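Risk register update: the risk of archive-format incompatibility is retired. Evidence:
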Amino acid sequence: MSSIREILGALVIEGEERIAAPVEKVWEALNDPEILKEAIPGCRSLERKSDT
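Archived output:
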């Protein structure tokens, strides 16, 4: 089970999910700001701070 909560303007995501996809594809999606933004309920914007 996952929970998402906002604390002082920062987003905290907890829990785990099993995704039926190759690890490489999941990692690629998690590092794509547009895809990640669509996956976070209520997210209106997402800014990449670093490539690392």
